[in-house]
Model the fold of this input.
Amino acid sequence: ETGVTQTPRHLVMGMTNKKSLKCEQHLGHNAMYWYKQSAKKPLELMFVYSLEERVENNSVPSRFSPECPNSSHLFLHLHTLQPEDSALYLCASSLAGVAPLHFGNGTRLTVT
Amino acid sequence: GENVEQHPSTLSVQEGDSAVIKCTYSDSASNYFPWYKQELGKRPQLIIDIRSNVGEKKDQRIAVTLNKTAKHFSLHITETQPEDSAVYFCAAGSSNDYKLSFGAGTTVTVRA
Done:
């Protein structure tokens, strides 16, 4: 039991599709994050929500659209993605501020 | 922003030997330095962290050292075991914001 649950685990989508990634945390945290993990690269921070307010948008293309309806749920809406967007997308949560991040198992995304 | 360099990118050690991974950071405001372990197909998990008010921290076979003047920190694993085989990530962040900057990772292989 990880405390941070991501669905789906795997996703294959075409460049014209629209899909959403879901993250849910059961740890009582108040900050949630999306990270992109590509092979041989550092984890790239995409978005941060603290107390349901977006506090970081790290120059991410508009084809990625986050949504945080409450402190336990985080979504990443995807549309018109490119093959280079194929990666592992990790959700994480923490108490607000820099504190240990708790990661989910990730969604392995393949864009064809 | 913060830039974290991690070396080596791959490390192979004989079971029972020690493994050392080194990271450097650029932002002198960084004061929180966690290390994450990611086994194949699994989520990154925090294994140890250190804050800038201490120079060393140990937890059983794992230790982390921090040199604030030189802006580098290291992970030491002693008496390595096959289950230590994984990718290890260092990170650096500041208590003033929500961001953690990650190194590119070190793939550690422990040979039996």
Remarks:
- The two ends of chain A are 32 Å apart (CA to CA).
- The mean pLDDT of chain A is 91.
